[in-house]
Amino acid sequence: MGRMERSLHYRELSHDTAKLESDPVCLQSGDPVWYLVQCKPREGFKASEQLLQQGFQCYHPTCTQLRKVGTERRWVTDSLFPYYLFVRVKPYQSLSKVKYTRGVTRVVGFNGSPQRVPPSLVTAVMRQCQLLEATEPEDYKAGDAVMITDGCFKDLKAIFKERRRNDRVVLLLNLINKEQAITVDDATIERFQES
C-alpha cells in the first residue's frame, strides 16, 4: 500500500469513526451492546454515577479489601480493574454521550473504532465479583491452629486464643517450650493446613 493509498484509507477510517460517534443511533442490531470504558484516574466511581444518571446500564467491578487507613484497619471498596468499567448501550442511545461523560477518558477500541465486549465476558466478571464478595473473613474459635502470614513471626504456627477490638487477635505462640501470648492483625493469619 503506497503513501497516498494509506492516507486515503486513514481518511476513510476517520470519516467512518466520526460518522459513528456523531450518529445517535450507532448500533446496527436491536440488542444492547457492552463496551469497555477507560476512566480518568480516581474517577471511576464518579463516571459510573454520571453514566447511570444518563440512563446507561453500567457495571463497575469492585472488591472489598481490609486496608490499613491511618492507625486502624478498615474494609475499603476499590475498583477491581482500576480506570475501567463496562457500559451497556441500547440501540437508541448515543455512544458519543458515553465518550463525553465526566470522568470518562475514552471508549476502548481498535483502529479508531469502539470494540464491543461479549456479554458472556461481562457475565463471567460479574459472577467472579459475587464470589469475591461472598467470602468473609474467617471466624476462628479458641484453640484453632493458625499460620502467621506476615511480620516478624511469619510462617510460624500458633493457637488462636481470642479476638480483640480494631481487628486484632490474640495468639498463643510456642517459644522456647513456653506459650507466649502475642497480638497481631487478623489479616495476617490464616487457618493452618497440615501438609
Features:
4 helices, five-stranded antiparallel β-sheet, disordered N terminus, alpha+beta, elongated, Alpha-Beta Plaits, 195 residues, SH3 type barrels
CATH superfamily of the largest domain: NusG, N-terminal domain
Q: What is the number of beta strands?
A: 14
Largest sheet: 5 strands, antiparallel
What does the overall shape look like? elongated
Describe the fold and architecture.
The protein has helices at residues 3-22, 44-53, 95-99, 119-134; strands at residues 33-39, 57-59, 62-69, 72-79, 84-89, 104-107, 109-110, 113-114, 116-117, 145-148, 157-163, 168-175, 178-185, 189-191. By secondary structure, it is of the alpha+beta class. It folds into two domains: 24-134, Alpha-Beta Plaits; 145-191, SH3 type barrels (Roll). It starts with a helix and ends with a strand.
Quick summary of this structure?
The chain is an alpha+beta fold. Helices cover 26% and strands 37% of the residues.
Question: How do the strands and helices of this protein lay out in sequence?
Answer:
Blueprint: H1 3-22, E1 33-39, H2 44-53, E2 57-59, E3 62-69, E4 72-79, E5 84-89, H3 95-99, E6 104-107, E7 109-110, E8 113-114, E9 116-117, H4 119-134, E10 145-148, E11 157-163, E12 168-175, E13 178-185, E14 189-191
